[in-house]
Amino acid sequence: MSTPTPAEFAAKLHGRPYRSDLSPEEEKAAKDAGLVVVFGASDDLMELRGAIYDEVDCFRGGTCRIDTIGVLDHRAELDHMAILEYADRSRRSVELRAVWNDSIEYESPAWSYETAVPHATFEVLEDAEVYCRGIVFKIADLVELVQPTMKLAVVSSADEVPAWLDPDFATELREMLSTDWDSRSAMILRFDDGPPEVHMDGGDPEDATFARDYAWVEDALRRAYAAGRAAACGQIRAEHEAIVRESKQATRGHR
Predict the structure, then answer these.
(1) Contact predicate 182/201, CB 8 Å
(2) At what angle are helices 80-91 and 216-254 packed, to 10 degrees?
């Protein structure tokens, strides 16, 4: 049996009556296919099923961020390490927005969803009216939209070759660095799981300027990353505190 596409899975859900949630079999089928189904419930919930299983509070509209692990949690009182984890995951996440139709005429649909991830749509009906326009997307498509993560290593011997390199390439690089007549150094860069970029010096003593002239690069990049991460954490901490305040105010107002 072939794996269903988002459009094919959405077609199976199209026209389903409100409060007819996905069956356990449908949830498993979506999960096995790497699909995420998003739809609404009441006036304050966004439901996710399949490759991500979660429920997001979004009284009359709201946003959350999602990655391949799931929904990023900004509702809990996060400690320092949780803030750092949230910062790292946030860089590799995309926004998912629940749009509530709050017009006086209550024109359909009440719920619709917006995200940069390519998706197919389906309609959930209530009394022959469109209550919700849900979406279905592939979790793999999310990966292509997130910010890249850089890995960096500066090596001068075979023992220093990093473990995150492709095994065949690592073997070749170790052989190059193990030659008795050579004194090469190499800088290795890789973004996400893409191919590595390798920059080597000339090898001969008179050409071996890489380690001498560029030894500061690794430390400078690491410091820049640390500074950026600290700034991002500070910004995210402030955003988190604002979200918690707004959530508490909305909850009081809703009650």
Answers:
(1) no
(2) 100
Q: Could you give the number of structural domains in the chain?
A: 2
Calpha distance 57→243 (Å, rounded)? 12
* Strand, helix or coil for residue 188: strand
Range of the domain at 161: 150-214
Instruction: Rank 34-48, 168-182, 203-217 by mean pLDDT and report only the highest.
Output: 34-48
* Peptide bond between residue 6 and the one before it cis (omega within 30 degrees of 0): no
Residue 30: predicted pLDDT: 96
Residues 73 and 169 in one domain: no
- pLDDT tens, residue by residue, 145-186: 775 667 778 788 888 888 888 888 888 888 877 765 556 677
pTM: 0.59
70 and 172 co-located in one domain? no
Query: Could you tell me the CA-to-CA distances from 140 to 9, 52, 88, 146, 186 in Å, in that order?
Result: 16, 12, 19, 11, 33
Same domain, 184 and 64: no
Q: Let me know: does 33 contact 4? Beta carbons within 8 Å.
A: yes
